[in-house]
Amino acid sequence: MANPDAAGTEGEPFRMDVERGKIREFALATGSTDPYYLEREDPVVQPTFLTTTFFWQSDESNPWPAVDLDQRRGLHAEQEYVFFGPPPRAGAKLTCQSRIGEVFTKQGRRGGEMTFAVMHTEFRDESGRLVARATMTGVETARPPAEES
């Protein structure tokens, strides 16, 4: 069962270097043919590129395990990105920090309680300016899906 006391848990800040090659690889992996991402010397990131923060996080910087969702009943419900100016460009060095926001329950339409957990990750540039915020919502259903025979 998800841990409601995880709300407020904060991970240690971590650094994410935005590299031109990684922007290109991400664009190719997502099926983009846009030369803006593939050929420019200083491309901006695609909005969902910030998902790659999971490759940069360590045990100390990732607060999500504190939520303790049962993975047999867990779903990735939503992902949102808000930018506070232009997206980061190749060469940016971002300081990121994740924290667990809300942990709450709702009654499901098919019966059973669902537990929602929300994690916010802030991305700041070298001057400390907030560049972007990612919000991820996970859900734990009341019971695991029926097993197939």
Structural commentary:
The protein is mostly beta strands and 149 residues long. The protein has one domain (4-140): Thiol Ester Dehydrase, Chain A (Roll). It is 9% helix and 35% strand. The protein has two helices and five strands. It has helices at 20-29, 35-38, and strands at 14-17, 74-83, 93-107, 113-124, 130-140. Strands 1-3-4-5-2 form a five-stranded antiparallel β-sheet, with no helix packed on it. The chain is globular. The model has no long low-confidence stretch (mean pLDDT 90).
Q: How are the elements arranged and paired?
A:
Elements: E1 14-17, H1 20-29, H2 35-38, E2 74-83, E3 93-107, E4 113-124, E5 130-140
Antiparallel strand pairs: 1-3, 2-5, 3-4, 4-5
Organism: Lentzea albidocapillata
Pfam family, one: FAS1_DH_region
Domain FAS1-like dehydratase: 7-133
> Into which percentage range does the β-strand content fall?
25-35%
| Form type | globular
Q: In angstroms, what separates the terminal alpha carbons? A: 26 Å
Q: Give the CATH architecture.
A: Roll
- Write down the secondary-structure element order: EHHEEEE
* Total count of domains: 1
Mean pLDDT: 90
- According to CATH, the fold-level topology is Thiol Ester Dehydrase, Chain A
In the CATH scheme, the class would be Alpha Beta
Broad structural category: mainly beta
Number of strands: 5
